[in-house]
Design brief:
57% helix; flat; mainly alpha; 88 residues
């Protein structure tokens, strides 16, 4: 079972989660417009502006060392990390 409280305390995970949320929002808005549910159109200007802001924020986070976590190997949590109540 996933311990969401611990995940949201991990800045690396939060950055990845937020970036995926932006992609999900874009896909949903594009789909809603395609089927005629909404008149909102994601123009290239809007996409460019959002992308520039996100790149700037993630660039700063990368410089601070938040984006990468060199203390873990692989892509999934270790058995020990799954038992944490708070980040170690």
């Amino acid at each position: 079972m996933v311990n969401w409280k611990v995940r949201f305390k991990n800045l690396t995970w939060v950055v990845a989660f937020v970036s995926q949320l932006f992609i999900l929002i874009e896909v949903i808005l594009t789909g809603l417009h395609a089927v005629g549910i909404t008149d909102f159109v994601l123009t290239d200007a809007i996409k460019g502006w959002v992308l520039a802001v996100i790149n700037a924020v993630f660039g700063i986070l990368a410089m601070l060392g938040v984006v990468q976590d060199p203390t873990t190997s692989g892509l999934k949590d270790s058995d020990q990390a799954k038992t944490y109540v708070k980040p170690k």
